[in-house]
Amino acid sequence: MKRYAALGVFLVIVLVVVAFVQYGEPAWIQRLRYPLDYKSIVTAHAQNYRLQPALLAAVIYQESKFDARAKSSSGAIGLMQLQPATAQGIALRTGGSKFIVDDLYDPEINIRYGSWYLRHLLDKYGKERLALAAYNAGQRNVDEWEAAGEGIQFGETRHYVKRVEDLKKVYRHAYAKELGY
């Protein structure tokens, strides 16, 4: 009897491994690994700024792992890791009259500003890869690369773009219902 139980456990493990290889990681495991905090804010701003919700969630995860209190060594703040100077410019362009740096720790404000900025970059560059590269490396760098007819020149930025593209697929799969796919 014990032999059959061990064989049954072995077969289940084999089937799970085959399923992973053939179909990828199951959605329930992806949900454990990749949270979707602030879902209502993410979906609202994705809709408002004509962004794919999975793309917005992927950028947030890559930037901060959904930690609203995140602050980088370069001074980028919040969920979407916005530089205060960039955020102040966004506030002015979107009708804000009073910018306070600490507001970037507020998930609603941070995601709103980050969504506006991501839409701006998508409109400017017309390609998601270039927009993501500009989000990571700055518009000046991407403009120079484009003017020289070069691709993304920073290895870190190439990795960032690939990672966000992969995360977008994860969020689309793991949260298809919640994100409207």
What value does the average pLDDT take?
Answer: 91
Largest sheet, in brief, is: none
Total count of strands: 0
H-E order: HHHHHHHHH
Which runs of at least 5 residues are low in confidence (pLDDT < 50)?
14-23
Distance between the ends: 46 Å
Supply the CATH class of the largest domain: Mainly Alpha
CATH architecture of the largest domain: Orthogonal Bundle
- In angstroms, what is the radius of gyration? 20 Å
DSSP strand content: under 5%
**Gross morphology:** globular
Number of domains: 2
Overall SS class: mainly alpha
Question: How is the CATH topology of the largest domain named?
Answer: Lysozyme
Counting DSSP H or I runs of 4 or more residues, the number of helices is 9
State the helicity in percent bands: 55-70%
Write up this protein:
This protein has 181 residues and is mainly α. It folds into 2 domains: 1-25; 34-174, Lysozyme, CATH 1.10.530. Helix content is 66%, strand content 0%. The chain is built from 9 helices and no strands. Helix 6 crosses helix 7 (128-137) and helix 7 (128-137) crosses helix 8 (139-147). The termini are far apart. The relative contact order is 0.14.
